[in-house]
């Protein structure tokens, strides 16, 4: 399903440690939104949900709900740092179209998508992603 690079694991390990034990892991989900139709969401979670796939990468646990699983099959999540900033990058073989922001995509006939017009958030979407 989802694979994390060493850089992503290292970064997430630090983030989870800063939660002081309040978070059991990180949720990665796909929801409607963004300028290409679907967007990635990440957030700390206290526990897995009843329909979650639970993935372990050393000290890091990832939760993926059943609705997001088909969109995240084969995805590689990396953490990159560069001149333009740092953040998580998703390499998704299921994406048939993606926005320049890298956080929004479409997969086949799922979600109609929007336009990728420039905006202050770096993406044509008014949604946070």
From TrEMBL:
Residues 2-103 form the Core domain. PROSITE patterns: HESB. GO terms for biological process: iron-sulfur cluster assembly. It comes from Azospirillum thermophilum. It holds the Pfam family Fe-S_biosyn. The lineage of its organism: Bacteria, Pseudomonadati, Pseudomonadota, Alphaproteobacteria, Rhodospirillales. GO terms for molecular function: 2 iron, 2 sulfur cluster binding; 4 iron, 4 sulfur cluster binding; iron ion binding. This is Iron-sulfur cluster assembly accessory protein.
């Amino acid at each position: 399903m989802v694979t994390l690079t060493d850089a992503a694991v290292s970064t997430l390990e630090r983030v989870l440690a800063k939660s002081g034990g309040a978070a059991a892991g990180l949720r990665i989900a796909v929801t409607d939104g963004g300028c290409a139709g679907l967007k990635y969401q990440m957030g700390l979670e206290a526990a897995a949900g009843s329909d979650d796939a639970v993935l372990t990468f050393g000290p890091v646990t990832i939760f993926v709900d059943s609705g997001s699983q088909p969109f995240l099959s084969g995805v590689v999540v990396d953490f990159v740092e560069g001149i333009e900033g740092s953040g998580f990058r998703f390499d998704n073989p299921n994406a048939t179209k993606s926005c320049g922001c890298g956080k929004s995509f479409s997969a086949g006939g799922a979600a109609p998508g929007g336009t990728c017009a420039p905006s202050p958030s770096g993406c044509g979407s008014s949604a946070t992603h």
